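FAQ

Q: What does a record look like?
A: Structure on top, sequence underneath. For example:
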């Protein structure tokens, strides 16, 4: 007589524990989904920030290249202008004794030209090097952020899988 009510009571207790275990597992899964959703949103925000920064860095690089091209053109023009100011070489005509100018001859040994051109080149080079350092620093910072984020994801994923216990029904 007492055996059936006792077994029914034990069965209800087991069902309650099973239901609680199932709710706990469901809660953990839901928490994982919420955490992954938050991580995804953060990743999307960071990607959007990187996407907005990328054109700025590319524009800066393009401007630096344009400045380098402009510097090159200015130096070339100053060399050409200086060559027209230099005395031209002359060729002697042995029969008439008159000097004939050789067109397009350059006077590249002008010391005053070398120092001004060298200063201009050094200034342009230092500008380009500083811009390059800034760009490399920006790239390095972005890589460090990505590495940190990947490590955090890896540690989060490994800690989640380590704590999961399987329940057999």
């Amino acid at each position: 007589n007492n055996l059936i009510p006792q077994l029914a009571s034990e069965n209800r207790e087991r069902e309650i524990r099973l239901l609680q275990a199932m709710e706990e597992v469901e809660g953990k899964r839901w928490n994982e989904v919420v955490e992954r959703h938050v991580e995804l949103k953060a990743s999307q925000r960071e990607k959007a920030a990187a996407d907005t920064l990328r054109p700025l860095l590319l524009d800066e690089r393009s401007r630096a290249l344009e400045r380098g091209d402009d510097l090159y053109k200015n130096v070339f023009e100053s060399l050409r202008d200086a060559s027209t100011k230099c005395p031209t070489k002359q060729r002697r005509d042995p029969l008439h004794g008159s000097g004939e100018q050789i067109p397009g001859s350059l006077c590249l040994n002008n010391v005053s030209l070398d120092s001004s051109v060298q200063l201009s080149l050094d200034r342009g080079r230092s500008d380009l090097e500083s811009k390059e350092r800034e760009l490399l620093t920006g790239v390095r910072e972005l890589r460090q952020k990505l590495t940190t984020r990947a490590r955090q994801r890896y540690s989060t994923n490994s800690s989640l899988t380590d704590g999961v216990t399987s329940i057999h029904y």
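Q: Is there anything notable about this one?
A: The first strand starts at residue 90 and ends at 92.
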